[in-house]
Amino acid sequence: MDEVSLNTDPVGEDDAEDFEFVGDCAMTEYVGQTGIIQNPLPPAVAMEFETYEDVYYFYNCYAKEQGFGVRVSNTWYRKSKEKYRGKLSCSSAGFKKKSEANRPRPETRTGCPAMIKFRLMENKRWRIIEVELEHNHLISPSSGKFYKSHKHIGLGTKRTLPLVSAEEVQKIRLFRTVIIDGEGNGDADTNGEFGNNVNHSNQLKLKPGDAQAVQNFFCRMQLKDPNFFNVVDLNEKGCLRNLFWTDSRSRVAYKYFGDVVLIDTTYLVDNYDVPLVSFIGVNHHGQSVLLGCGLLAGETIESYTWLFRAWLTCILGRPPQAIITDQCKTLQAAVADVFPRAYHCLSLTCIMQKVPEKLKGLFEYEAIRMALTRTVYYSLRPEEFEAAWEDMIQRHGIRDHRWIQTLYEDRRRWVPVYLKEIFFAGMFPIQQIEVLTSLFEGYLDKNTPLKEYLDKYDQALQTSYQLEALADMDSRNSSYMLKSRCYFEFQLSKLYTNEILRKFGKEVEGMYSCFSTIQLSADGPNVTYTVKEQVELNEDRRDSMDFEVFYNASEMEVLCTCGLFNFRGYLCRHALSILNQNGVEEIPPQYILSRWRKDIKRTYILEHTCSGIDINNPVHRYDHLNKSIIRVVEEGRKSEDCYKVTLQALDEILNKIHLVDKQV
Asked: PANTHER family, from UniProt (predicted)?
């Protein structure tokens, strides 16, 4: 056993304070190099940092923001003198030892339990392993009380950034990235073996005025949104390398719609002037919703890893269930590193769009394209796909084609037949006509300057917010026109948004194209059926396909080989046919998803705790009231009636305040 602790006394004893120099002394130079974290997030289990000092610095910045001091309670060392574990506590932790002096100092500690524990992992990164956020005393960031641990934290540092133009001196505030990683592997392979047009540039290609535009954009967003989150990555020369930002609405939207996320790298890969990477989800209307943005210097594992960890930070270390990206080895390596537990799938749309580029020069290209399309979209079982793929490559002599080989190697990440167990909420198109549009379509083309994009950014978001608000009004206030007399459709019309109902209505209509249902086998309550349907394979050809449907009457479970429920979030025509045939009048509750419901109130306001509010402090009162009134504004804008009620209530509140003011 080569691990020892130099602090053997209970946490909170005065002896522990002797080790406070571990943080303070080490931080003097460190703070001068990096500046101060802006709006630091609360510490959370699984957050990771490069060094011991980084952990101290992050917790100290958080403590200063909240209004308490920090003490190093324990630091453990190996026999080699290497630190491997630490504990930071609130400065009010523990109690002082009793003194025998005639006039002992008064007790200032409260035995506060607030603390974090962290340790050195095998990848040489420091991970938080335990967190306690609650204090047993009042804390106030505006109390003006001085704490020893804050003496080296200034107002932030600025540094001149040597950019493209030597004529313009451009400055931007520096922020330190706090890193969260569920599994914890921060080492990135940047040796270039993962190649997909990899750009090894170490800094953003900025034009004159771009750095100032970035600073102005961040300042403007922070003034409008106190919970706007942004981090900046600098290279060794202090130049901008990578950026990430997101607003409070996007952060709250992730809570509702963060189960499946598309990482859109189109603008970066296609060498747009704005190297944008977007995190995209889908809302209750099936509309795209922005969950975060970044600008990257290049397609390197290092840049992607930095961006993913920055995003993971703002969503408090809770990764999505499924992630969809382009077919890129660099991306795959970064996703596997940062999101090891998420299902990583490759965009079927992007792959099929590359077919002309990759295969156009081949003999019998059109026949190959049709064979590939049929194999990918119409295989119902893995063995069907394997047989059709083998027939295609043998018939057309493309077994040795490098891209075809790569597609086959990655087949379990992009071919629908292998992905039926993963929930996609409609974000993985399984038909050729399905295409997901970009949120910035019409606002960003290949030659759009960065300054123009940043100016239009808010306009693009406001457009998407308005579309969602209009869809909300349409779903709540207008009755959906039923396409059939089927009770399944009537049932969901009371629950789902209109756009999802329109899509589901096509499945209800499709029930009538299912012309034959045969029972294959029965084992107690488990029954397997075959449902035949006429399917349009291409413009001039229709064919009959057999879909197997598993049905369990006791559990009210129904499962079809087409996998539509997981792909789109509602039952398919084949499953509906079997439910109808078995006399089931309503869709079972497990197949009614809350993410599509119109009766759930979704408030895009970050929740704030009220603990530690010092009502005697005017600055604290202002801050708390400001955050509270935002919620009122958000609710009041939802309809004309809500708007009128809000105005009336605000007038009443103002009159009451005037009466109180006169009495005082």
From this structure: PROTEIN FAR1-RELATED SEQUENCE (PTHR31669:SF236), PROTEIN FAR1-RELATED SEQUENCE 10-RELATED (PTHR31669)
Q: Both ends of the chain: CA-CA distance in Å?
A: 68
The label of the residue with tokens 């506590």 reads 89
Q: How far apart are CA 589 and CA 578, in angstroms?
A: 16
What the block records as the tokens of 23 is: 């943080």
Q: How many CB atoms neighbour CB 398 within 10 A? A: 19
458 token code pair: 């808010």
- In whole angstroms, give the CA distance from residue 501 to residue 503: 5
- Cα 519 to chain centroid distance, Å, stands at 44
| Integer Rg of the chain from CA | 29
CA distance 276 to 29: 34
Instruction: Give dist(CA 547, CA 533) in Å, integer.
Output: 8
Tokens of 431: 């038909």
Distance CA 437, CA 445 (A): 14
Question: What pairs with residue 117 in β-bridges?
Answer: 87, 130
Structure-token match 């993963």, residue found: 422
Average pLDDT, the chain: 81
Beta-strand pair 70-78/3-5: antiparallel
Q: DSSP letters along 90-104, please?
A: ETT-S-PPPP-SSSP
- Provide the H-helix boundaries in 478-525: 487-493, 498-510
For residue 6, what is the DSSP state? Answer: S
Q: Which residues contact 298 (CB under 8 A, 6 or more apart)?
A: 198, 199, 200, 201, 202, 275
Order of strands, edge to edge, in the sheet holding 541-552?
Answer: 514-523, 526-538, 541-552, 557-560
| Structural contact between residues 21 and 156, judged by C-beta atoms closer than 8 angstroms | no
Q: At what angle do helices 301-314 and 329-338 cross, to 10 degrees?
A: 40
Which tens digits make up the pLDDT trace of 112-163?
Answer: 999 999 999 887 888 888 888 888 888 877 665 667 777 655 433 333 333 3
Residues 6+ away with beta carbon under 8 Å from 334: 188, 301, 304, 305, 308
Q: Which residue has the tokens 């919620």?
A: 631
Neighbouring-strand partners of residue 343: 322
Task: Find, among 469, 466, 578, the residue nearest to 522 by Cα.
Answer: 578
Measure Cα distances from 514 to 165, 206, 338, 488, 578 in Å: 66, 58, 44, 16, 10
463 CB neighbour count, 10 Å cutoff:
14
Torsion on CA atoms 21, 27, 29, 32, rounded to nearest 10: -150
Contact 492, 658 (CB under 8 A): no
Which one, of 193, 217, 190, lies nearest residue 201 by Cα? 190
**DSSP symbols for 577-640:** HHHHHTT--S--GGGS-GGGBSSS----S-----TT--TT-HHHHHHHHHHHHHHHHHHHTTSH
The two tokens of residue 477 are: 């206030």
Dihedral sign of CA atoms 655, 658, 662, 664 in order: positive
How far apart are alpha carbons 552 and 333 in whole angstroms? 41
Ramachandran bin of 120, using left for φ above 0, alpha for ψ from -120 to 50, beta for the remaining angles: beta
| Cα 90 to Cα 148: distance, rounded to the nearest angstrom | 12
Task: Pick the more confident residue, 29 or 643.
Answer: 643
In sequence order, the β-bridge partners of residue 324 are 262, 345
DSSP 513: G
Q: Which secondary-structure segment (H or E) carries 185?
A: none
Evaluate if pTM is beyond 0.85. Answer: no
pLDDT tens-digit profile of 63-113?
888 889 999 999 998 888 889 999 999 988 887 766 555 556 666 788 899
User: CA-to-CA distance for 89 and 110, rounded, in angstroms?
Assistant: 12
User: What phi and psi, each to the nearest 5 degrees, are found at residue 337?
Assistant: -75, -50
